[in-house]
Design a protein that fits this description.
8 strands, alpha/beta, six-stranded mixed sheet, two-stranded antiparallel sheet, about 230 residues, single chain, globular, about 15% strand
């Protein structure tokens, strides 16, 4: 119900830009340009160090300034209408990964149930659905399958270094029961709102492969500046 009330409130209450605070516009032109990297679009990114098992990752924008503010507004403050522009950015990253031009499965990285309950929505799944809607204009075979589940409690990743994050999420994700059969027959692109060290995406790729899926890459809205190529941040 929280998500429903937030959407209704957004229709009638004046809002400020989620990125820079400019009044009476939910997302201004300047912040839209920041999300698209001033038209340069998504790029392949690599954390340092690269965790074992991490597929190739494409990101839409560096996680800083306006982009960080927009992601947090959607994720933590329930600015649900931002899912559409964020989905556009994610769709660009998915295009970078590719997948052969046929059917494509987008598999969101899951949040803990307690986090989803506290926020009143699942931000990554919502952005993934928006991205799939845009990608279907080019290929009808794009679907979102939210099959991954956390199978054990993990600690808050904030404050952990790359090695600690790998240990923290190792074996934490799984595709339950017979759901793995839904992964057969199409390439899988893992999707998330943010990549930091890549540990969670590497674990997601392991879990999808263990269930019989074929992860071909990962797409995220944002990644640290240092993960972008030197000529494209």
């Amino acid at each position: 119900m929280k998500g429903v009330w937030r959407e209704l409130a957004g229709l009638v209450l004046p809002v400020d830009c989620a990125g820079c605070g400019r009044p009476r516009t939910e997302l201004c032109v300047k912040c839209l340009r920041a999300l698209s990297r001033d038209g340069r679009g998504a790029r392949r990114v690599r954390p340092c160090p690269v965790p074992a098992g991490l597929p190739r990752v494409w990101a839409g924008a560096p996680y800083a300034d306006e982009v960080r503010a927009v992601l947090l507004a959607h994720k933590e403050r329930g600015a649900l209408r931002l899912a559409r522009p964020l989905g556009t950015v994610l769709a660009g990253a998915v295009r970078g990964v590719g997948g052969g031009g046929g059917p494509l499965l987008l598999v969101p990285v899951p949040s803990a149930r307690s986090a989803v309950a506290g926020r009143g929505h699942d931000p990554v799944r919502r952005i993934a659905l928006a991205a799939a809607g845009e990608l279907r204009r080019e290929s009808a075979g794009v679907r979102v399958l939210a099959l991954l589940r956390q199978c054990r409690v993990v600690a808050d990743q904030a404050g952990l270094n790359a090695r600690q994050r790998l240990v923290n999420v190792a074996g934490a994700l799984a595709v339950p029961g017979m759901a793995g059969r839904l992964l057969a027959g199409a390439p899988v692109v893992l999707v998330d709102d943010l990549m930091t060290t890549g540990a969670t995406l590497a674990e997601a790729a392991r879990a999808v492969a263990a269930a019989g899926g074929r992860p071909v890459g990962a797409a995220v809205v944002a990644a640290p500046r240092g993960a972008f190529p030197a000529d494209g941040a």
